[in-house]
Design goal:
Blueprint (H helix, E strand, L loop, with lengths): L2 H11 L2 E2 L10 E3 L12 H6 L4 E4 L10 E3 L3 H15 L3 E6 L4 H12 L5 E3 L9 H6 L8 E5 L7 H9 L3 E4 L7 H4 L2 H8 L1 H8 L3 E5 L3 H6 L6 E5 L6 E2 L1 E5 L2 E6 L2 E8 L4 H13 L4 H10 L8 E5 L2 E6 L5 H13 L4 E7 L8 H12 L6 E5 L1 H4 L6 E3 L2 H10 L6 E6 L14
Parallel strand pairs: 1-2, 2-3, 3-4, 5-7, 5-8, 6-7, 8-9, 9-10, 10-11, 16-20, 17-18, 17-20, 18-19
Antiparallel strand pairs: 12-13, 13-14, 15-16
Enzyme class: ligase
GO cellular component, one term: cytoplasm
Main location: cytoplasm
């Protein structure tokens, strides 16, 4: 079947699925494969559950004319998404970066949806499967699609750009994330900059954090850029007036009081404001959107529980995001402060050094207690409390009382799932 014919069928159904547990009536089911699963096996189940079509790539699972045999299911999904993206009238904003992608994406969507019909990446579905699935949620009346792009190796962002064909792009930052896959910080910069390369090659527009010297240098000769800065008068001026604990912003004589903790969220807000201004969203609407936005999904969430003030930032962690989270937490005044820090993953040969760097960072800071959790932190040299895994942490907390009225920072990589600590406090 040609992609345009499949797209015609898609327009009739307007919904795809890759999981038989979430099939809706008339979905098109894509039988994806992974290292430990083969979606072809579930084609019959998908049809029985209400799917109208099942896309397969193994002939032995062909059932009837409701099954479509293709050479490769994943490639077909990506081709369909690209075809739909070009078919739609929506403008596409893509963003990537080492830290803050998902929060920034949600903030951009929050401000733009005040004026436009928007869709945005759900959660962090930002890879070679998630980007196509996001593009396929573009509706006939969608005006702007905000597409998050993640990567852990070179050429991945380049590939995602070929699928999404963005009209605009923004890079949050370049940090120490996925060092194992990128081969170091220079590899991270090169990999994330593939978004710049696509946009420049195709004469598209770039949004720029002009406070970031790396971004400023890479785009110094490019004219189709729209930037913000708290210090550089050549760019749209936005200032942070306070971050104790929440980020307050001053822009065009307007004060915006957010529910986002940590100065590291300042530039995320700035990006949303700048992009919204580019699209002519009224500043009053921007202010309302940002002041009403409340973080969730374990990202800088503020939780008050049993007399404890918890900053739950346990969705993910890398050396860059861990450092700024710790420094911000240290800056909070008049509180008993406890940190529960979990291992950072995908650091490769840098793991030992980067975990020790975090330990050294905390040594002269004003914390009542620090818990380091995980095999990597357990190997570090420190007088602080080290625990090999979550089970040991659970036992320790059960047998030891954390001071009442304490503030607690919980941060670690996704695989550590440190949000489970909430049940122990």
């Amino acid at each position: 079947m040609k992609i345009q014919d499949l797209h015609s069928a898609f327009l009739t159904h307007q919904s795809v699925s890759t999981d038989t547990r979430k099939i809706k009536e008339n979905d098109i089911f894509f039988a994806l494969k992974g290292d430990n699963f083969n979606g072809n096996i579930y084609a019959q189940k998908a049809l029985d559950s209400g799917a109208s079509i099942a896309i397969i790539d193994e002939e032995k699972y062909f059932i009837d004319d409701r099954t479509i045999l293709v050479e490769d299911v994943l490639t077909t999904l990506q081709q369909l998404a690209n075809y739909h993206r070009k078919y739609s009238k929506a403008q596409v904003i893509s963003l990537t970066g080492s830290n803050g992608k998902t929060t920034t994406k949600e903030l951009i969507n929050a401000v733009l949806c005040k004026t436009y019909k928007t869709i945005a990446t759900k959660g962090n579905l930002n890879n070679h499967i998630g980007v196509p699935l996001t593009l396929l949620t573009i509706q006939p009346d969608t005006e702007i699609a905000i597409v998050e792009m993640g990567a852990n190796h070179l050429k991945e962002i380049e590939f995602l750009c070929k699928i999404a064909e963005p009209d605009f792009g923004y890079i949050t930052n370049f940090g120490k994330a996925h060092l194992e896959g990128f081969g170091g910080v220079e590899g991270v910069i090169k990999g994330k900059s593939e978004l710049y390369e696509y946009l420049i090659k195709n004469n598209k527009s770039i949004f720029l954090n002009a406070d970031d010297p790396i971004q400023l240098d890479k785009l110094k000769n490019y004219t189709k850029k729209y930037g913000f800065s708290s210090v550089n008068s050549k760019y749209y001026n936005i200032e942070m007036t306070e971050a104790q604990p929440f980020v307050n912003i001053q822009v065009e004589n307007t004060n915006i009081k957010t529910n986002l903790i940590g100065s590291y969220n300042f530039h995320n807000c700035c990006a949303a404001i700048t992009i919204a201004k580019y699209f002519n969203v009224e500043l009053s609407e921007i202010k309302t959107a940002l002041e009403n936005y409340t973080p969730d999904n374990n990202r800088s969430q503020i939780i008050n529980t049993k007399g404890l003030y918890v900053i739950l930032d346990a969705y993910n962690a890398n050396p860059s995001s861990m450092k700024v989270a710790i420094e911000n937490f240290n800056s909070l005044n008049n509180l008993h402060k406890t940190m529960i820090l979990g291992d950072m993953f995908e650091l490769g040969e840098s793991a030992e050094e980067e975990h020790q760097n975090i330990v050294e960072l905390t040594k002269n800071m004003n914390f009542d207690q620090v818990f380091f959790v995980g095999e990597n932190f357990y190997k570090t040299q420190t007088d602080a409390i080290k625990l090999r895994n979550f089970d040991e942490l659970k036992v320790f907390i059960k047998n030891n009382t954390i001071k009442a009225n304490s503030a607690i920072l919980i941060k670690g990589s996704r695989g550590m799932a440190l949000e489970r600590v909430l049940d122990c406090l």
